[in-house]
# Entry
Amino acid sequence: RSGFIIRPVAGYLSPRDFLAGLAFRVFHCTQYVRHSSDPLYTPEPDTCHELLGHVPLLAEPSFAQFSQEIGLASLGASDDAVQKLATCYFFTVEFGLCKQEGRLRAYGAGLLSSISELQHALSGKAHILQFDPVVTCNQECKITTFQDVYFVSESFEDAKNKMREFAKTIWRPFTVRYDPYTQSVDVLKDTNSINSMVKDIRHELDIVEDALNRLHKHLKD
# Structure
């Protein structure tokens, strides 16, 4: 379990509202189904897209964390920065490609839920570029047609690390962290809030140290 919950919406949200939901481990999910005349592709996200593409990946802790970190990076950011983060989300979580054992794999929900677009992406007709958030954030997102360009990462971890570094370049006068116990976001903007976080980290490290000591003792016995 990753802690993500699904919340129904009637349609598209603004990039800021959608990413803010991710920051709180909330994924907003549409409720309608694609038309039966074209079951292999939908120009807008439908229930099939959400349940077949997004939900299985959000159940995986590492992927869920990746999605949440993009959301956290958007809190308090400028409209321009939010749009860039949303575009990076679009070309990773929605239409991302990565390599696995040297072979090209799709992990984006928009590809996993659309046979037609998946075939298009891997047919050689579309351009496939190396994922670089600085470049990707300026790419045009196609909403009602297939994408002209897809971005590939060496691995999913590679994409996550690049997004973390990119998020650090976004200016805001504070940083944030998610508290899983209260399911809220803490704003780190002064010494008191930072000291509180340090105490929490020390407590977690004490637990790790205790676990290692017990494991070491068990192995010796």
In short: The chain has nine helices and eight strands. The longest helix spans residues 191-220.
